[in-house]
Design brief:
The chain is built from eight helices and two strands. By secondary structure, it is an all-alpha fold. It has one domain. Strands 1-2 form a two-stranded antiparallel sheet. A hairpin with a 7-residue loop joins strand 1 and strand 2. Helix 3 packs across helix 4, helix 6 runs antiparallel to helix 7 and helix 7 packs antiparallel against helix 8.
Length: 296
């Protein structure tokens, strides 16, 4: 709940206005690839995604190696609870036979949760550290951009959902075979008896199948991105309450108290959002893979 405690608005950009402050926080640290500006990498998103992924793998490997068959420690207990909960959910939801589903579900849930949890850091802390480093290096701190929530980047959520999309196709083909997978694309949801009727309904079935497959990654990515982007933006608006405030003015203290209450309330509520969004992304992935493995 660190966001409720305060902000480091001393790193505000040149100009010091609210618009500049918001734009500064919503600007990615970017790097152009090649001479063309067509491809641009959001370096901060890639960096924090990599760090959190390595952290997730390292913690689980360390826990697995130190796991005991006797009385588990506190952290091992938490990990076992998460694993058992996800494994039970997979058994109830996925009716096919795959050893990949449970590990995949745990990875999706915890990785998305960790990326979402970056929103719990004070909104100005890491950008302020980054700007201070720029200033020490002789660079302009006003151009030291940094966003720390990977899931507030549409590229991240689309990347995750596209990976799920390809997994859905893989599961469909592996469980039904290429012939069965192709046949289902032209024969469901409208089933017909007779060759002529099946041929007539095939274009409509294929069109609906394409729409269904396209909507899945779109809804997965936009739902997660929208919630995390909105959460980040609200934290920025709360930080604006004391931007450029003067310690000599009595209104500063009233705004500071209101900012603390608003930040504490939104942080408490946002904790539920980041857990819920990770859970929803995982559950929908399991459901989509289960549907792909089943014959309709």
């Amino acid at each position: 709940m660190l966001n409720a405690i305060g902000n480091f608005s001393a790193m505000e950009p040149a100009g010091g206005g609210s618009t500049e402050y918001i734009n500064h926080h919503l600007h990615f640290l970017q790097m152009k690839v090649g001479e063309s500006s067509f491809m641009t990498l959001n370096v901060d998103t890639l960096f924090f995604t990599l760090v959190l992924s390595v952290l997730f793998v390292a913690v689980f490997l360390l826990t697995a190696r130190r796991a005991t068959s006797g009385v588990p420690g506190k952290f091992q207990t938490v990990v076992e609870m998460v694993v058992e909960f996800v494994d039970g959910l997979v058994r109830e939801t996925f009716h096919g036979n795959s050893k990949l589903i449970a590990p995949l579900s745990i990875t999706i849930f915890l990785l998305v949760f960790l990326m979402n949890f970056m929103d719990m850091l004070p909104i100005d802390f890491l950008p302020w550290v980054w700007a201070s480093g720029h200033e020490l290096a002789g660079e302009d701190p006003a151009h030291a951009y940094l966003r720390v929530v990977p899931t507030a980047d549409l590229n991240t959520t689309f990347g995750l959902s596209i990976a799920v999309f390809f997994l859905i196709q893989y599961f469909g083909i592996s469980h039904k075979g290429l012939a069965g997978f192709t046949k289902e694309a032209f024969s469901a949801p409208f089933h017909a008896h007779g060759t002529f009727a099946r041929i007539c309904l095939a274009p409509a079935n294929l069109l609906l199948r394409l729409i269904e497959e396209g909507v899945r990654p779109l809804s997965l990515s936009l739902r997660l991105f929208g919630n995390m982007y909105a959460g980040e933006l609200i934290f920025i608006l709360i930080a604006l309450m004391t931007l450029n405030a003067s310690l000599a003015h009595v209104s500063t203290y009233a705004l500071g108290a209101a900012q603390f209450i608003a930040g504490f309330a939104w942080t408490t509520f946002h904790i539920l959002i980041i857990v819920l969004q990770a859970f929803i992304f995982m559950v929908l992935t399991i459901v989509y893979l289960s549907m792909a493995a089943e014959s309709h």
